[in-house]
Amino acid sequence: METNTLIQTEAWVISLILFILMIISCFAGKKIGNYIRNKRPAKEKSAETSSLIALLFFLLAFTFGMSSERYDSRRKIVVEEANDIGTAILRSDLYPDSTRTQFRKDFKEYVEVRISYYETGADTKGILKADSLSQIISAKLWKRATNLSKDPNNLAATQQMIPALNAMIDVATSRLAGEKAKVPQSILAMLFFLSIITAFYSGYSEGRNGRIDWLVQIGFCLLVSLVVLFTMDLDRPRRGFVNLDVPNQTIIDLRKSFE
C-alpha cells in the first residue's frame, strides 16, 4: 500500500529534518544579507517577505484542511462499517436455527479478521492479508445467502440479508480505498520547498537590516515544522499521535454479539 519513501518515513523525522533545514536556510540567508549590506552600504529597502510568509501559511492551511478532511472520512467509514456488520449479524436471526448458527460462525470469524485488519498497524503485508481474508469470508457469506434465496421459505430473510451483506462488502472496499488516498506527494514537496525558501528570505531580510532576532526565527521554524508534523500525522492514522483507535472500538464491541 505504502511504497513511497516519504510516506514510509516517520512524520516526526521529516518534521525534524525540515526544522533543521529551515534553520540552516535562515542562517545562510542572514550571511548573504550581511554580505550584501556590507558591500552596498547605501540605504536600500530590505527584501519584503510578508507575501511569501502569507503564501506559506495559505499552503499550510490548505494541506492541513485536506489531511483533516481525509481523517474525518476514515473515522466515519469505520463507524459505518461497524453498523453494517452489526446489521448483517442481526438479520441472520431471520433464518432457522441451523442456518443462523452457520451465519453467526462466519460473521464471528469476519469480525475477528476486520479487527486484525486495523490492529496489524502499518504492516502492508498484514493489511493486504487481512483484507484478502475478509473477501474470502464475505464471499462465503454471500454464496450462502444467494443459495438460500432460491428457497421460497427464505424470501423474507433474503430480502433483508442480501442488502445488508452488500453494504458490508462495499464498505470494506471503501475503507481500503480511503486509506490509500493520501495527500499528494507533490503538494507536500511544494510545502517543504516553500518553507525552506521562506526561512532563507526571512534570514536574508534580517541580514540586510543588520540584525536578526533568533528567538523569532527559531520560533517561526518550529511552528511551521509542528504544523507539518500534525498535518502528516492526520494523514497516517495507522501510526503516530492521531489514530483511529476509538472508532475501531465500535468494531471490537461487535464481539459482544456472539456472547
Folded structure, characterized:
Helix content is 78%, strand content 0%. The mean pLDDT is 88. Helix 7 packs antiparallel against helix 8 (214-234). It has one domain. It has 259 residues and is an all-alpha fold. It has helices at residues 5-8, 11-39, 50-91, 97-119, 124-148, 155-180, 185-208, 214-234, 245-252.
Write the layout of secondary structure elements.
Blueprint: H1 5-8, H2 11-39, H3 50-91, H4 97-119, H5 124-148, H6 155-180, H7 185-208, H8 214-234, H9 245-252
Helix pairs in contact: 2-7, 2-8, 3-6, 3-7, 3-8, 3-9, 4-5, 5-6, 7-8
Helical proportion? over 70%
Number of strands: 0
Q: How many helices does DSSP assign?
A: 9
Beta-strand share of residues = under 5%
Distance between the termini: 35 Å
Low-confidence stretches: none
- What's the domain count? 1
Oligomer: single chain
Give the structural class: mainly alpha
Average predicted confidence as pLDDT: 88
Shape: rod-shaped
Biggest pleated sheet: none
Listing every helix as H and every strand as E from the N terminus to the C terminus, the arrangement reads: HHHHHHHHH
Rg estimate, integer Å: 27 Å
What is this structure, in a nutshell?
The chain has 259 residues and is mainly α. The chain has helices at residues 5-8, 11-39, 50-91, 97-119, 124-148, 155-180, 185-208, 214-234, 245-252.
Question: Tags for this entry?
Answer:
single chain; 259 residues; mainly alpha; 78% helix; 0% strand
